[in-house]
């Protein structure tokens, strides 16, 4: 049995296959996912699992060099923005319109759907290198 923190086989597989500059997204239960993007659906109930729980789990194994957040998170969900900034204080952030974020999901290896039910709780993680 796998000893590391990411035990979901689909998430573990996607992370293992990622290279430099590849992207992985984590988001709320309402984010529309393009048909061509793999969706790993973890949502079981309102808030279960939370966006933050899943983000923390993924960060146990994925080296991230940049994150992308919706511009709208600043006004519509500042508590989540603060939480993300506390979790990843040294990672550069690029803010983009939510409409652009939805389009950018076409360029992600996968989208991990959480049970999060707060607005604009979506992130795109850009893979870095560990050397």
Q: What labels would you give this structure?
A:
alpha/beta; 6-stranded mixed beta sheet; 22% strand; single chain
CATH superfamily: RbsD-like domain
Across the major sheet, the strand order is: 2-5-1-6-3-4
Distance between the termini: 27 Å
Q: Tell me the β content.
A: 15-25%
* CATH topology type: RbsD-like fold
- The number of distinct β-strands equals 6
Biggest beta-sheet profile: 6 strands, mixed
* SSE pattern, N- to C-terminal: HEEHEHHEHEE
Shape verdict = globular
**Number of helical runs?**
5
Family: Belongs to the RbsD / FucU family. RbsD subfamily.
Protein name: D-ribose pyranase
Pfam families: RbsD_FucU (PF05025)
Catalytic activity: beta-D-ribopyranose = beta-D-ribofuranose
């Amino acid at each position: 049995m796998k000893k590391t923190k990411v035990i979901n086989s689909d998430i573990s597989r996607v992370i293992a296959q990622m290279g430099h500059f590849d992207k992985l997204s984590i988001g709320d239960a309402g984010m529309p996912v393009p048909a061509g993007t793999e969706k790993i659906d973890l949502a079981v109930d309102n808030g279960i699992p939370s966006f933050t729980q899943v983000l923390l789990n993924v960060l146990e194994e994925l080296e991230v060099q940049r994150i992308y957040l919706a511009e709208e998170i600043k006004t519509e969900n500042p508590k989540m923005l603060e939480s993300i900034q506390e979790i990843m204080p040294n990672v550069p952030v690029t803010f983009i319109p939510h409409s652009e974020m939805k389009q950018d999901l076409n360029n992600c290896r996968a989208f991990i759907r959480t049970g999060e039910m707060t607005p604009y709780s979506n992130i795109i993680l850009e893979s870095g290198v560990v050397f």
